Amino acid sequence: MMLISIIIALVIERLGARSEHWQIDYYMGKYLTWSKHQLREKGAFSSDPGVMIWLVLPTALIAMVYHFSDFIIFQLILNVLILLVCFGCGRYRRLYKGYLNALTRGDSEAVTLYALQMGQERTESERNGETFGQTLVWINFQHYCAVMFWFVVLGAPGAVLYATVRYLVTTLTERQEDDLPEQVALLRSTLREQTQRFSRLLFWLDWLPARVASFGYLIIGNFTKGTGCWLKYLLDFDTPNRRVVSDIALAAEQIEQQFFGCTYEATCMMRLVKRNILFFLVLTALLTLFGGLS
To answer: Which of 181, 185, 191, 233 has its CA 20 to 30 A from that of 281?
Structure first.
């Protein structure tokens, strides 16, 4: 059922489930608004253990629903709905289209702005920088591969836990400081002190999926060129997972430097990540056939 749930969710998401109601941001905003008084000083969730209870509460509720329901059709529908919400990256899709349009008309200022909004903090020419294609790889990893990984390992509660932590870290650490949306301002005012703790938790949630996804890049890309890079990071517990995923993806795709920042690079990287999602589906299918999954 896991494989069927993932396939249906991916198909529906590709067909256009991109409104705010299909984004984890919408539901986390509602949850945060509901619990804001409990998160503040002297509230039920104001202590460090209380914040962690607040963090896992949605996951626990989803787990309880599954525990008390054994109707397969209901579980399938719930799986698909939860995956759609956890996948949700409508904002990045809109920004990516804007980026390509800006490239087409040669508007370098707009290109830079779109790249910054999508999370490219430094260009490939700067120290510890990355190409825009690598930024795309990381976004797709966090919104698809990692969600699928934790869904397969822990079911729908695992996907919800990962998407929740991803949303919190992304919102707390993004560079925008002026004219913050009400939801973002509220989150930062109540949970800013927990940023480091959430970031560390996300690091460990990303660690194993990053190695699995990166291995997929080797299988579907240039195995010879990428293997050395993958082995270098295999047991590395210090390097950011973003660097691991993006470096191995670039090594596996082998794009020449002259194409960095061009439509060609972005298109090649998008093809790579789409093929990697197919790799995940094949891996899930094999686990299902050999009895590892239901």
So the answer is: 233
